[in-house]
Amino acid sequence: MPEKRVHPGSSPFPTWHRLAFWRQGLSPWLLVAILLLAFGLRLHRIGAQSLWNDEGTSIALAQRDLVTIARDAAQDIHPPLYYWLLSGWVELVGTSEAAVRSLSAGLGVLLVALVFALGHLLAGRRAGLVAAFLAAINPFQVYYAQEARMYMLLAVGAALAFYAALRWAAEASGRGDGRGAQRWGVLYVLAAAGGLYTHYAFPLVLLAVNLVIVVHIGLLWRTAPTVGRSNLLWWLAFQVGAGLLFLPWLPAAYRQLTTWPQPAATYSLVGALTQTSQLLTIGPAAASWSQTLLYSLPFLLLLRPTPRSPRLSRPVAYLAPVLWLVVPLALIFGLGLFKDAYLKFMLVTSPAFCLLAGRALVPFFHRPRWLKVTESTLYSLLAASLILASVVGLRGYYNDPAYARDDYRAIASYIEAIGRPGDAILLNAPGQQEVFDYYYDGPLPIHPLPKSRPLDPAATRESLQALAQPGGRIFAVLWATDESDPDRVIEGWLDTNTYKALDSWYGNVRLVMYAVPEQAPTSPQRPLDVVLGSDGEPPDRIALLGYSLLDERLAAGEIAQVTLFWQVEETPARRYKVFLHVLDAGNHIVGQRDAEPGGGVQLTTLWEPGQTIVDNYGLPVHPATPPGTYRVEVGMYDPETNRRLKVVQGSDGEVQLGADRVWLSPLTVVHPASPFPVTALDVQHRADARFGQLDLLGYDVYRLGSAHQPEAALHPGEVLHVNLYWQAVGQPREDWGVVIDLVDSEGTARASIRGEPALDFPTSQWQPGDVWRGQFNLALPGDAPAGAYRLYIQPIPPVGTRPAPFRSEPIQVTR
Question: What per-residue confidence (pLDDT) applies to 287?
Answer without folding.
Answer: 55
